[in-house]
Amino acid sequence: MERFLDQFFNLEIMARYLPDVAAGFLVTIQLALSVIVTGLLFGLALAVVRAFQVRPVNWLIILFVDLFRALPPLVILIIFYFGLPFIGITMSAFVISWIVLASVLAAFAEEIYWAGITSVNRGQWEASRSTGLGFTQTLFYVVIPQAIRMTIPPLTNRTIAITKNTALASVVTVEEMLTVAQTSLAYAANTSPLTMAAIGYLLIFFPLTMASRWVETRYAWKR
Amino acid sequence: MAHAQTAPSRYVVEAYDIHKSFGDFEALKGVNLTVAPQELVFIIGPSGSGKSTMLRCCNLLEQPTSGQVKITGEEITNRSVDINKVRQRIGMVFQQFNLYPHMSALGNVSLALRKVKKMARSEAEDRAQAALQRVGLADKAGNHPTELSGGQQQRVAIARAIAMEPDVILFDEPTSALDPELVGSVLEVMRELRESGMTMVVVSHEMRFARDAADRVIFMDGGLVVEEGTPERIFTDARSDRLKSFLHSVTGH
């Protein structure tokens, strides 16, 4: 037991590496929030564009969505990180991680929003159109608000699952929490920094799960 | 130009030789319908007779396969007509109410006033409140549809239609989804509308209401108008076998 505590909860080592892990924590939070906000908005934008049913555009959307859903995020990340410089695009590892994870989230989110949009009753469209609202107005004022409320539970699940992939950014040298924890672990020959990282992840994702539960109840309406 | 074709018309709704096919199925086989101002026209008929389809052709929720629809003289089946503009003048009330579940009753009624008629929120809400008052639901303005009974929901839907001050309101089986004890409140509102001079086309199985409120009853079967006349004439002097057997089946004697 003592060896276990010494290996995973060594307070002296934790204190020594706390500033480093805290810095990584901030990077992880930045990356996570950037991914969530842009991923969800981009996904919604794709679903809205898809609703207009312009064939060639929809094929492109579906291609993008299926590609980013099929490939493991780590594979996409590595391809972008090592591939983009070859075609003359250089971006920081943080930005590449952000773009890749946001795109993966957008791909899944688009499918979820789209399912929501198509499951809004046809009668809602007819009622709205019968009062003189146009297609776009009906989409924005009547259909999408309902679609979003319906899709909040699957959406928050998916958001949390994908946002946890910020840890993958450690592979492409982003100084996020896991990277820092692993480096510290190597220097200290002790796994306590990893314990700190685990606690850090809980600090990020527990509030996120609670926030999603709050959003679910806040925007639910009685059926 | 749309207005170039608009001639003064004696009718609010005119539909000539309306055909509508769904794939191989011919739902309407050449139906004519004219509705004069302040008239209440009732369309009855067995299910599958095409009566709802006919009603939905009047505001182009169904696009007729062929034929002509005019609203106050303006031919709306003409492709160059802005259908959203025309629909402001045609209210519609649905069997399933189709209220927006994410909005309050007031929100439901004021949405089109704000977004179609471009009224300021306060003006739209005043008018929506007045419409709710008219259907007896002034105190339910803040309630969401799920907090209302079926009859109240349908009255909100009627308020949504009348708030736009349309030239005509189309009712598609407005009481068919209601529990029997809630039907009366909806018919009461429709009767009040009728007395105030609203032009109405009603598809419904409420034969008693048709009898005392309708100016004219149209009996449809198999995608065609089979008989039409005053309620008196349709209900007491049926000439075709199809109308006789239909009346027999709905009234039970």
Automatic annotation (TrEMBL), chain A:
Cellular component annotations (GO), alphabetically ordered: ATP-binding cassette (ABC) transporter complex
PROSITE patterns linked to this entry: ABC_TM1
UniProt cross-references to Gene3D superfamilies, sorted A to Z: MetI-like
Cleavable signal peptide: none
Residues of the ABC transmembrane type-1 domain: 25-212
Record-linked SUPFAM superfamilies: MetI-like
Membrane topology annotation: Multi-pass membrane protein
Compartment(s) where it occurs, according to its Swiss-Prot or TrEMBL record: Cell inner membrane; Cell membrane
Single GO molecular function: transmembrane transporter activity
Pfam families: BPD_transp_1
Superkingdom field: Bacteria
PANTHER family: L-CYSTINE TRANSPORT SYSTEM PERMEASE PROTEIN TCYL (PTHR30614:SF0), MEMBRANE COMPONENT OF AMINO ACID ABC TRANSPORTER (PTHR30614)
The name this protein goes by in its record: Amino acid ABC transporter membrane protein 1, PAAT family (TC 3.A.1.3.-)
Lineage: Bacteria, Pseudomonadati, Pseudomonadota, Alphaproteobacteria, Rhodospirillales
UniProtKB/TrEMBL annotation, chain B:
Membrane-protein topology: Peripheral membrane protein
GO molecular function annotations of the record: ABC-type amino acid transporter activity; ATP binding; ATP hydrolysis activity
Domain of life: Bacteria
Compartment(s) where it occurs, according to its Swiss-Prot or TrEMBL record: Cell membrane
SUPFAM superfamilies tied to this protein: P-loop containing nucleoside triphosphate hydrolases (SSF52540)
Keywords: Amino-acid transport, ATP-binding, Cell membrane, Membrane, Nucleotide-binding, Transport
Record's keyword annotation contains DNA-binding: no
Family: Belongs to the ABC transporter superfamily.
Name this protein carries in UniProt: Amino acid ABC transporter ATP-binding protein, PAAT family (TC 3.A.1.3.-)
Biological source species: Thalassobaculum litoreum DSM 18839
